[in-house]
Write a structure and sequence with these properties.
The structure holds two protein chains of two kinds.
Chain A: E1 5-14, E2 17-27, E3 32-36, H1 43-49, E4 60-68, E5 71-72, H2 80-86, E6 87-90, H3 102-112, H4 119-132, H5 136-139, H6 152-164, E7 170-174, H7 182-195, E8 200-204, H8 208-214, E9 217-223, E10 230-237, H9 238-243, H10 248-254
Parallel strand pairs in A: 2-10, 3-8, 3-9, 6-7, 7-8
Antiparallel strand pairs in A: 1-2, 1-4, 4-5, 9-10
Helix pairs in contact in A: 3-6, 4-6, 6-7
Chain B: H1 37-72, H2 75-81, H3 91-127, H4 130-144, H5 148-173, H6 191-215, H7 219-227, H8 232-261, H9 264-269, H10 289-296, H11 302-332
The chains are: A alpha/beta, B mainly alpha.
Chain lengths: ~260, ~350
């Protein structure tokens, strides 16, 4: 299920403005890769190119290639909709569909993919996905209540359940804990540790302790100055990045000297 | 708890000032901040709100008081005095077909206009390139600026001859549907044509309101759908339409309100009749309340005017009921509206 991602010479633009330049990296399957860096360095922008969500903003486009198991996601014959069905995404703020119940939220992706699904299969998917997202015990008695009635942390786990219900190859998380309290954050981090046995996970985080706790590999992004494009400074084993990074800027950032 | 010197709690924090819990359902009164400009604003806003109520009550009172003579006069005397009541045996007997005609015409307009308006609104909010969208929106708004007399002239002189063959076709091949049954009018001055003109007239308001609502869909929800692998249409279905549901109902009700009260266009196009008839293509079948008032008013005697105002009262009640029904529809799935 999980697949590796190879990024080559990727330049990302908003209209004329080059936001991220010359990214070159590989993301290993069944692992957690964390992106860290100061605000505005392009880590979220880069994350969104991995499922072609970047281009929903008018004028946004990329140059270069992002290959998933050898297939270029930006090939001319690739439908962005198909890419997004294989690469799930969890956003900064929990965004369950407010008009849907908890169960409907979990099934939303499956219904979109136009699969006819029997009632019992649907129930199975709902239970499995919610169990996988460590949410089942909290919501099993109110599956037909609106998802927006849950707490922030529960909503975020509901969004994770919704993302994994369609069995994606890769799971992207854009600062999934930034709107959550420490206990909910811990629940999500535990969940990430469990999910990595099945999925390739890429997570953007502002919290360096979080990157150190959950990830196997860490990539540090930085930008020279405002108006300049962001760049990937280095990517390595998380333990290496946090103990003996090769680049001085990385060390300065993780030791809190800037950013 | 006492309000004097409460002991520090465990973590050394003094509990905050002992506040009387406000009674549920009542807004706590703020005395401190309510001074000067703030107070002026508060009273202006309250006054504006109250003005609506006063106006509504004034209109209702006017209608009831002026309709009273007709309502209290015995039916036999009324039909004798008021020449144009025709074969109607009582006021109720007279106003019934008018209510029917009014609702039928407005419903017809709504059925035609809503899908088109939603299509235009979705196109301008989610499909069209920005420049085209604003141009199109401007054009639709222009439709609202055309006086209804002009719509009436256009409907009677231009549209009616144009649609005549279409109505004939509908009658010939779909005549088994009650709406298209009967004898097709050779002038096409029928309720179907009226419905079409009314639809054009209410198109701008429905389009404008629903476009604004569509544009307010939270980006977060749209992206949630797209990230799940939704196509643009699926994203609209999953994120935009559910979010906009109550707004669409409001937009349609605004349109319906205008269609219910529209006078000139109906008066100038429709060949009237006073029947409970679903035949949309036959002449001399229906009439609307507003158009009937305009048609009879100039030659009505005092009792006749009173009878006309009574029909106006009926129109007022219909509009109120329609709006209340719309609110009930919107409120039914409140939990799922995303407002919490």
């Amino acid at each position: 299920m999980a697949q590796r991602i190879d990024v080559k010479d990727l330049n990302i633009f908003y209209g004329e403005f080059k936001a991220v330049a010359d990214v070159e990296m590989s993301v290993e399957p069944r692992s957690v890769t964390a992106f860290i860096g100061p605000s505005g360095c392009g880590k979220s922008t880069f994350l969104r190119t991995l499922n072609r969500m970047h281009e929903v903003i008018p004028g946004a486009h990329v140059q270069g290639s992002v290959a998933m198991d050898g297939v270029d996601l930006y090939g001319s014959d690739i439908d962005p909709v198909a890419v997004r069905r294989q690469v799930g995404m969890v956003f900064q703020r929990p965004n369950p569909f407010p008009t849907m119940s908890i169960a409907e939220n979990v099934l939303a992706g499956i219904k979109l993919n136009n699969k006819r699904i029997s009632k019992s299969d649907a129930d199975d998917v709902v239970e499995q996905s919610l169990r996988h997202a460590n949410l089942w015990n909290e919501v099993k008695d109110r599956l037909n209540r609106p998802g927006s009635g849950l707490s922030g942390g529960q909503q975020q786990r509901l969004c994770i359940a919704r993302a994994i219900a369609v069995k994606p190859q890769v799971l992207l998380m854009d600062e999934p804990c930034s709107a959550l309290d420490p206990i909910s954050t811990l629940a999500i981090e535990d969940l990430i540790a469990e999910l990595k046995s099945d999925y390739t996970i890429v997570i953007v985080t502002h919290n360096m302790q979080q990157a150190a706790r959950v990830s196997d590999r860490t990539a540090f992004f930085n930008l020279a100055a405002t108006g300049e494009p962001g760049r990937l400074v280095e990517i390595d084993e998380t333990s290496t990045i946090f103990s003996s990074p090769r680049v001085q800027a990385t060390e300065d950032y993780i030791s809190g000297r800037f950013g | 708890m006492t309000s004097t010197q409460s002991p520090p709690t465990q973590d050394g924090v003094r509990p905050t000032k002992d506040v009387e819990s406000p009674r549920p359902g009542r807004r706590p009164r703020t005395r401190v901040a309510d001074k000067g400009a703030s107070r002026l604003f508060r009273w202006t806003a309250t006054g504006a709100g109250a003005l609506i109520l006063v106006l509504l009550v004034a209109v209702a009172a006017f209608l009831v008081l002026r309709a009273l003579p007709a309502l209290t006069t015995p039916a036999a005397e009324l039909t004798e005095e008021v020449s144009w009541m025709g074969e109607a045996t009582s006021l109720l007997d007279f106003v019934g077909p008018l209510i029917f005609g009014t609702i039928l015409a407005a419903a017809l307009a709504l059925v035609i206009a809503t899908p088109i308006a939603l299509g235009i609104a979705l196109f301008t909010s989610h499909y069209a390139p920005r420049r085209l969208a604003s141009g199109l929106g401007y054009l639709v708004d222009l439709l609202a600026a055309i006086p209804s007399v002009v719509y009436g002239l256009w409907g009677g002189l231009v549209l009616a001859p144009m649609v005549k063959p279409i109505w004939a076709w509908l009658n010939e091949y779909l005549g088994f549907i009650p709406f298209f049954a009967g004898t097709v009018s050779p002038t096409a001055r029928v309720l179907m044509t009226v419905g079409l003109v009314l639809a054009v007239m209410i198109l701008p308001i429905i389009t404008a309101v629903s476009r604004e609502v569509f544009l307010q869909t939270p980006r977060l929800h749209e992206e949630a759908a797209l990230a799940l692998g939704a196509t643009r249409w699926e994203m609209i279905r999953v994120a935009v339409l559910p979010f906009a549901r109550s707004g669409i109902v409001s937009a349609a009700m605004l349109g319906l309100g205008r269609a219910l009260g529209e006078t000139m266009a109906v008066l100038m196009i429709l060949s009237p009749g006073f029947l409970y008839s679903f035949k949309l293509l036959e002449a001399g079948q229906q009439q609307t309340i507003a158009a009937n008032i305009a048609a009879q008013f100039p030659e009505a005697n005092p009792l006749g005017v009173s009878a006309l105002i009574a029909t106006g009262l009926a129109l007022f009640v219909i509009t109120l009921v329609v709006n209340m029904a719309a609110r009930a529809i919107v409120a039914r799935r409140k939990d799922f509206s995303g407002a919490n």
